[in-house]
Amino acid sequence: MEHLITLVHAYATARAGAERHRALLECLVDDNDGFFMTKIAEYELASTTYHAQLMTAYDALTRTTVRAIPDERLPVCTWQKGVVEARGVLPDATRSVRVRYTPGQAIAAGAALIACAALADRDTGGTLTTLLPPFPDQ
Fold first, then answer.
1. Full-model pTM
2. Which end of the chain is flanked by fewer CB atoms within 10 Å, N or C?
């Protein structure tokens, strides 16, 4: 638990450093030597690293796999520019789960889901065959 607190502190410090230097840069007329931009990049990299370590530590602490089903009310949304979010809920509806994709990742995931659905449809005689042409067996 102490390790987790240390990671939270390191992450918060790195995020604060990036934001502080970003605010200072906005107040300057010019940053000829690029000092503040360099510092912002350093703190951003550190915060990304600490965030990954923090999430890994949290996963190790909980030691659980969440198995969710699609959210019936809003399974996919694009509420934030450049983000496609797939939503799910636990079967007992006690917790929601979100997976965020870049547009490119969403296209790849969507294509994979369509391919899997088409294969399952061919084997079970479902409804996709009326929407999609049959796939070649080769």
1. 0.45
2. C
